[in-house]
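About this split. The held-out portion is used to measure sequence recovery: a designer receives only the C-alpha cells and must propose an amino acid at every position. Recovery is the fraction of positions where the proposal matches the reference. Here is one held-out target exactly as it appears in the evaluation file.
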C-alpha cells in the first residue's frame, strides 16, 4: 500500500571512527536547506503554501536534536549570519519580500515580520552586524534599490536606485589574532567590556565638557559685547535728551504719567430679527 513520499537527510560524521550516519526524516516536501556557517546547527524549509514551516536542528556529540519548528511561515530561502546564531527567513520574489530575523540561541523571532516588496537578494556583511536586501533590475524592473538592516531586523536606511543590479560587501580582511588570542579575548570578554565602557564614558564626558565650554565662551562673548553697547548708550544719553526737549525717552515705559488712555469704539456687526406675533 502506498504510504506517501518521505524525505531524508543523512548526516555523515566524517571525523568519527567508521563515519557513522544520522538520519533526519521529513514527511513533507523540502524547499530549502542551509548550514550554520559557524556552529553545529542546520535548518530547512518544508511543506507547501500556506503551511510552510522551518525546522532547526543541532548536531551533538551523541545525537541530532530538533530545536524548534516555526510553522506557517512565508519564506522560501534561508540566509545565515556569517558568524552564526542569527538567520533570516526570506520570502523572495513571488512571496513579496517578507523577512523574519531569528535568534537561534533561544529560538526567538526578534521583530515582527518585515517587508521589502519584491526583494530578490539578501546579503549579510562579513561582520554579521548588518544585512542588505535588494530588488535587482535583473529580477524585477521596478522599485530597484537596496535597504540596510541591523542583525536584529531594525531598518537603518532605504536607498532607491534606478537600474540597480547587484550589491556585494567588501570582504573582511583576515584577523591578525591567533586562535589562542581569540580564545583568550572571549574568555575575558567581561573584563574587556568594563575597560571599554570606562573609555566610552570618559570620551562622552570629554565631549560634554567641550560642548559646555563652547557654550560658556559664546555667552561670555555676548555679555562682553552687550556691556560695550550699553556704555555707548549711556554716553549718548544727554545728547538724546537735548534732541528731545530734555525728555528721557529711555524711561518712558517705567513712567505711568507719560501715557494717556484712549478708548476707540467701532461697529462690528448688526443683526436684525423680525418677530411675528
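Reference sequence for scoring:
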Amino acid at each position: 500500500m502506498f504510504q506517501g513520499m518521505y524525505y531524508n537527510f543523512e548526516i555523515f560524521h566524517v571525523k568519527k571512527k567508521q563515519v557513522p550516519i544520522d538520519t533526519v526524516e521529513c514527511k513533507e516536501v523540502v524547499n530549502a536547506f542551509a548550514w550554520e556557517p559557524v556552529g553545529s546547527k542546520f535548518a530547512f524549509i518544508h511543506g507547501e503554501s500556506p503551511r510552510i514551516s522551518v525546522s532547526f536542528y543541532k548536531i551533538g556529540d551523541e545525537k541530532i536534536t530538533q530545536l524548534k519548528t516555526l510553522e506557517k511561515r512565508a519564506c522560501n530561502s534561508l540566509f545565515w549570519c556569517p558568524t552564526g546564531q542569527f538567520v533570516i527567513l526570506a520570502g523572495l520574489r513571488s512571496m513579496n519580500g517578507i523577512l523574519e530575523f531569528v535568534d537561534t540561541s533561544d529560538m526567538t523571532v526578534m521583530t515582527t515580520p518585515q517587508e521589502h516588496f519584491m526583494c530578490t537578494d539578501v546579503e549579510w556583511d562579513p561582520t554579521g552586524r548588518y544585512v542588505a536586501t535588494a530588488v535587482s533590475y535583473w529580477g524585477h524592473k521596478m522599485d530597484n534599490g537596496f535597504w540596510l538592516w541591523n542583525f536584529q531586523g531594525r531598518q537603518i536606511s532605504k536607498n532607491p536606485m534606478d537600474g540597480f543590479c547587484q550589491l556585494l560587501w567588501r570582504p573582511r580582511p583576515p584577523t591578525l589574532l591567533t586562535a589562542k588570542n581569540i580564545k583568550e579575548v572571549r574568555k575575558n570578554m567581561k573584563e574587556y567590556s568594563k575597560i571599554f565602557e570606562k573609555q566610552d564614558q570618559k570620551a562622552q564626558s570629554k565631549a560634554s565638557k567641550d560642548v559646555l565650554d563652547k557654550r560658556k565662551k559664546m555667552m561670555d562673548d555676548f555679555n562682553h559685547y552687550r556691556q560695550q553697547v550699553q556704555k555707548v548708550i549711556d554716553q549718548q544719553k544727554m545728547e538724546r535728551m537735548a534732541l528731545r526737549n530734555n525728555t528721557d525717552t529711555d524711561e518712558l515705559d517705567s513712567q505711568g504719567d507719560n501715557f494717556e488712555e484712549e478708548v476707540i469704539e467701532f461697529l462690528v456687526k448688526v443683526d436684525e430679527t423680525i418677530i411675528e406675533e
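Annotator remark: The longest strand covers residues 53-59.
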